Amino acid sequence: xxxxxxxxxxxxxxxxxxxxxxxxxxxxxxxxxxxxxxxxxxxxxxxxxxxxxxxxxxxxxxxxxxxxxxxxxxxxxxxxxxxxxxxxxxxxxxxxxxxxxxxxxxxxxxxxxxxxxxxxxxxxxxxxxxxxxxxxxxxxxxxxxxxxxxxxxxxxxxxxxxxxxxxxxxxxxxxxxxxxxxxxxxxxxxxxxxxxxx
Length: 198
Description:
InterPro entries: Ig-like_dom, Ig-like_dom_sf, Ig-like_fold, Ig_I-set, Ig_sub, Ig_sub2, IgLON_domain. By secondary structure, this protein is an alpha+beta fold. Helix content is 18%, strand content 44%. It has two domains: 7-61, no CATH class; 64-154, Immunoglobulins (Immunoglobulin-like), CATH 2.60.40. It has helices spanning 160-164, 167-197, and strands at residues 7-12, 19-23, 39-46, 53-59, 63-71, 73-75, 81-90, 94-99, 102-103, 111-115, 119-124, 133-141, 144-154.
């Protein structure tokens, strides 16, 4: 057909904002593309004769995993505990958990590994003393891998005596005792002062 005055307008339609590009042919080259530039792009081809033809293409930017969240947690003995590891990657990351350089395999007694495309959970159903320590979460895909250290630490459950005698209660008792002691010392001085007046 007639290509006189022909042009291609490209626009990124991702994240609710249109970013325009102009190209002289049907190819769009983006130098140094980043993962933020992935998404839907629309190509509008037009010339001076016919109405514009619009086509939409999806651009996927592959990148190695990076761990966005990995927090330690405190759990009392005998309770359920969960360590979480969140990683962003395209293609989606595969997760592995290690403790003391030993890989934790699915099905270990009392422990479950729950994997989703961007999140992995290491679940302890009944935490014991030997479960405490540092764990390593490894996230990997075909472009690379990364890891993070996450700690499961012991959290002491408050007992009934510590609830009844918290720091506030103790200091209140101490202050009350010192005030009473002060009054007892002032009483003889007051009596002596009154006797001296007469």
